[in-house]
Structures
1.
Amino acid sequence: MNHHLHNWLLGIGVGLALLMGSAFAEEQPSTERLKEGWTVFNRTCTVCHWPGVGGAPRIGDKNAWKDRIDSGRTVLYRHAINGWTGASGKRMPARGGNWNLTDDQVRAAVDYIIHNSR
Ligand code: HEC
């Protein structure tokens, strides 16, 4: 193989590996983070997101979460914090209706949902 081409391909390979490495890291919240998310989820979100009440996507239902997760973590954070009505007309209440939660607690619960629904 042409030497230059070989180096070039090697470069791409390393670049891709780095890219995938960082994407993977982004998708793996720490155990601490998941524990916090679990606590928030069980206090506030589970009433709708465990049984799937009122059109809420059930936690663990990969089909129900696929497109939502694909829209990106920051979008899901925003929808959970500010509230959101999807195309179906179902309403996700801001902070799950619990105004005592900080933005970061809501984000932790979203991380927990994503971690268990993909
Ligand atoms: C009163 C019921 C209810 C509670 C409580 C609730 N949700 Fe929801 N949530 C919904 C419904 C309904 C939807 C779906 C909205 C739609 O698709 O139209 C939803 C959707 C979502 C979505 C997906 C948003 C998107 O862009 O697709 C996220 C993320 C979410 N909820 C996070 C949370 C978190 C985190 C909590 C707890 C802090 C919580 N929810 C509590 C009803 C609830």
2.
Amino acid sequence: MEHERLTTTTPVNPGEVVVAQGLSHPVLGSVRCASAAVVGGALARRGIRVRYHRALNSSARVDQRLPVVRVTSWLDATGRARGFGVASAAGDTATATAVAEVMREWSSALRTRRLLVAGAPPTCHGARRAVRLVGRALAGGGAVYVWGRMVAESAAVEDLRRRGAMVVTDLDLVPCGATVVFPAHGVEPAVRAEAVLRGLTVVDATCPLAADILAEARRFAARGDTIVVIGRADHAVVSTLTGLAPHDTRVVQTVDDVLRLDIDVADPVSYLVAPGFPLDEAADVIAMLRATWPTVRAQHGLCHAATERAEVVDGLAAACDLLLVAGSDDCRDAVTIAERARAVGQADVHVVARVEDLRLAWLPRASTVGVTPALSAAPGTVDGIAEALSALGPLSVAHRDPDIPSQATADDYHGRDARSVPSEVHPTTEPVMTS
Ligand code: SF4
């Protein structure tokens, strides 16, 4: 590894740095600086203004008036130079000190490593299908309203908004004759009836799996059961399920929640694991329900999407020294992934909104890094992380796909007679517009 001090004719102001995304070196020629964003992020966190330059020139010429370029480089297996270059103004010692610190961190982070990328997308079949249907409705022209919440990658939701999709939670705001799309997690019957009454054109993007589970909840309510929904209260489908029988539905997520339920032991009780909730996290809750209400009845249909994704996170967390969740730290999905990884023993988990947020200090001991996108991941973040790591030593990249047991059934989790379980329905059919 080479550390050098060169000069550049590119102007640099005191208090700022110019970080090379590519560097023209007097001996090595073109130096690839794929970790420019990581270096820029480290300097910005030290309070320094950062500009980037796609092809910063550098020279061995000694001239006290010219900006200084500090360069660190190594040669990859093909003999190509990789590294980074940062220019600071002549005589700007405070900035130069910060650059020297980042250079040391960068050098410590340099090592051979492996990157494991989660192969599974952050959304399920049902959510992707709903996005497709909103897009198709927009392409048909006219105003398109989406009822409730669109659960999909932030970038996809933003794209639909830009194209004119409007999210509403009150059908009175939808003009007569306009198109309203029901989301993947479905709507309550009252909303459906109101849409028909108002003559709206309905595109029903309810996922068939979610529709099955909602239908079961309606059957439970019709036979007079108290329904215990196992899931996160802030998940869209949980509010839809609760809305079917608001007075007879309770939401629980933990064993403690079950202990707090005010249901008479003689009352008929049924439970549903909500889509979006991993089934292994529901196991203890189900056991406590069974212990408290021995005649409690279970659902037949189950959605395995969250379970499969949790299995991917578990596998990644176990296989790596450092897990990066691409997304924003105010995103429920990103936080849930990080919590899951910590729960299975991975202590070094970080949510990374931009490549700039990747800290050099996390990397020296990380010989295997895992990365998985959350719903809020900006397009290109996972690739950007891979690119940045490729500048920090020889990198091999592998994709981890879910290791899913073939056709798990509801009985794998409820311990009932397998013959009573219907086969799982995958949402491959597309709905027809109705008005
Ligand atoms: S039921 Fe499952 S597959 Fe369908 S939208 Fe919900 S989480 Fe996705």
